[in-house]
Amino acid sequence: LLSSTELLDASGNSLAKRNIDSTAAAAAVSLAIGSQLPLGIAGGGASAFNTILGDTTASIASPSISSAGNLSVRASAPGTIKANIIAIAAAGAGSANGNAGAASIGVSIARNFIGASQGNPGLSGGSPSMANSGDGNRISAVISGPGGNGLNSLNVTGSLTAEASHNAEIKASIVAVSAAVAAAPSGSGVGLSGAGKIGRAHV
C-alpha cells in the first residue's frame, strides 16, 4: 500500500548526474640565434577524449500495486561535458650576418561523447561506437510486476506518473595558435607556421 509516495533512488530521487570538466593545454617555444643559418622549430599539441556511459533506471516491481494518493516513478540522467583544449607553438630565429629560418605547428583535438565511446583511439578518431548496440545510454521509468512481467492489479487513487528524461550537454572550446618569426637583416629570413584543430561531439 502506497500513500502519496514518489519512488526514489538512494540519493532521494531517481537522478543519475554525470559531469566531466576537463582541460588540456600544451605550449612549445623555440628561439635560435646565430651567425650561420639558425633554425627555430617548435610544435605543441593538446588532446582530450571524454566519455559518459551508463544507464539509469527507476522502477517499482510488485504483483499488486495500490496507492491511496499519487504514484510517481521518475528517472533523469543529466550529463555535462565541459572541455577546454589549448595548444600554442611559437618559434623564432635571428641572424645578424646570414640567413635564418623558423617553423612552428600547433594542433588541438577534442572528442566528447555521451552514450558512445571513441571508435578509434588513433588520430583519425573514427566513428563513435554507440552503447547498448546503438541505443546509447538508456533512461527508463518502469512500473511492472516481478521480473518485468505484467501486474496482477494496479490501483491508484491520485495521479500516476512514469517519466524518463535525458538532459545532456557538451561544451567544448578548442584553440590552436602557431607563430613563427625569422629575422635576418643581411640575409634571408623564412618563417613558417601552421595551426589546426579537430573537434567531434555526440549525444
List keywords for this structure.
mainly beta; 15 strands
Brief write-up:
With 203 residues, this protein is mostly beta strands. The protein has strands spanning 5-7, 18-33, 39-52, 56-61, 64-67, 71-76, 79-94, 100-114, 116-117, 129-130, 139-144, 153-156, 160-165, 168-183, 189-202.
What is this structure's SSE topology?
Elements: E1 5-7, E2 18-33, E3 39-52, E4 56-61, E5 64-67, E6 71-76, E7 79-94, E8 100-114, E9 116-117, E10 129-130, E11 139-144, E12 153-156, E13 160-165, E14 168-183, E15 189-202
Parallel strand pairs: 1-6, 2-7, 3-8, 4-11, 5-12, 6-13, 7-14, 8-15
Antiparallel strand pairs: 9-10
What do you see in this structure?
- With 203 residues, the chain is mainly beta.
- It is built from no helices and 15 strands.
- It has a 3-stranded parallel sheet, with no helix packed on it. A 3-stranded parallel sheet has the order 2-7-14, with no helix packed on it.
- The N terminus is likely disordered.
Give the class from helix and strand content and strand pairing: mainly beta
The main β sheet shows up as: 3 strands, parallel
Q: Helices and strands, in N-to-C order? A: EEEEEEEEEEEEEEE
Helix percent reads under 10%
The main sheet orders its strands as 1-6-13
